[in-house]
Design a protein that fits this description.
With 332 residues, the protein is α+β, with helices and mostly antiparallel strands. Among the domains are: 60 residues, Uridine Diphospho-n-acetylenolpyruvylglucosamine Reductase, domain 2; 100 residues, CO dehydrogenase flavoprotein, C-terminal domain (Enolase-like, domain 1). It has twelve helices and twelve strands. It has a five-stranded antiparallel β-sheet with strand order 4-5-8-6-7. The chain has a four-stranded antiparallel β-sheet with strand order 9-10-11-12, with helices on both faces. It is globular. The mean pLDDT is 95.
């Protein structure tokens, strides 16, 4: 049986206090935890070895899902994925986000896991997400304890893949997040939360707490999220496609966003495909042309389930499916 290593558990009452605790215990590799659905298994496998955990469950607020006066959506970083999945507000106004939340893992873990945690979920790789003894047997990898990326041995960087289901949808919806640190708060676009590095994959500082997510009013934008995985529950994505479209009265596309996940160490935006769609009507031919462009930025390697050539091909298929769904879909 894998057991948790020893650690101290601290219970701050505010995000500012939590950030200060993280900064004060930096030498002890302090980490923040709320639902712990990703952190605790990683600690059991000794992928993370913090001596101090700063618990966020006792923080005041941070669990709301509400519409502001300007019709924008405000979500607390501690809101559970289950609360997003079941929110009548989300299902009616931002159904793509409710759908993405509903596709994360299993019902029990969605009951525990938070949207903030899902945005910052650790990157994954076949050679990394193993027991300590398994990883030791291959001399570890550069993401933890080793010096080589076993997926791409000649690469100077880690290629573990982004595995968040909510991130691509929030990027497609132009969402922002609030990060609270010891010296105050800052607000950045969700797309700027990530960098293409399997180890150092978020721009959030170690001592910062993700306290809120802000989604602008939809104004008729339609969005969807499609997820590829071997099993319909539990599994992380081996491909995720989020798409969002705004159309003019004549049916032409005014704005398009297509974001892929699980094909790189950060979510990937298919900018050329987006540009192709703008100013045109969403015909079958245009969808095929756009999907052919959208799958090109996908760079899946042999580091998750199923084969990388298959995942690459399915990126094109899933983008086409998403765009067809949006042609006849509901607002989100």
């Amino acid at each position: 049986m894998m057991r948790l290593p020893p650690f101290r558990y601290l219970k701050p009452k505010s995000a500012g206090e939590a950030a200060k605790m993280l900064a004060d215990h930096a030498r002890e590799e302090a980490m923040a935890v709320s639902g712990g659905t990703d952190l605790y298994p990683n600690m059991k496998r000794r992928q993370f070895e913090p001596k101090v955990l700063v618990g966020l469950r006792a923080l005041e607020g941070g669990r709301e899902v509400a519409i502001g006066a300007d019709e924008s959506l405000e979500i607390g970083g501690l809101a559970t994925l289950q609360s997003l999945e079941r929110s009548a507000l989300l299902r009616s106004r931002f159904p793509a986000l409710a759908k993405a939340a509903s596709l994360v893992s299993s019902p029990i873990l969605r009951h525990m896991g938070t949207v903030g945690g899902n945005l910052c979920v650790d990157t994954r790789c076949t050679y990394y997400n193993q027991t300590y003894d398994w990883r030791k047997a291959i001399d570890f990898c550069m993401k933890k304890d080793g010096a080589i990326c076993w997926v791409a041995p000649s690469s100077p960087r880690c290629w573990a893949v982004s595995s968040s289901d909510t991130a691509p949808v929030l990027i497609a919806l132009d969402a922002t997040v609030t990060l609270v640190g010891p010296s105050g708060a800052r607000r950045i676009p969700v797309k700027d939360l990530y960098r293409p590095d399997g180890i150092d994959f978020v721009t959030k500082k170690r001592e910062e707490i993700l306290t809120a997510i802000h989604v602008p009013a939809s104004h008729g934008t339609r969005a969807t999220y499609l997820k590829l995985r071997r099993r319909d529950s539990i599994d992380f994505p081996i491909l995720g496609v989020a798409a969002a479209l705004s159309t003019a009265k004549d049916g032409t596309v005014a704005k398009a966003r297509i974001v892929l996940t699980a094909v790189e160490s950060a979510p990937v935006e298919a900018e050329k495909a987006e540009a192709l769609l703008v100013g045109k009507k969403l015909t079958d031919d245009l969808i095929e042309e756009a999907s052919a462009l959208a799958y090109r930025p996908a760079k899946p390697l042999d580091n998750t389930d199923l084969t990388n050539p298959y995942r690459k091909k399915m990126a094109k298929v899933y983008v086409a499916r998403a765009l067809r769904e949006l042609r006849f879909g509901e607002e989100s």
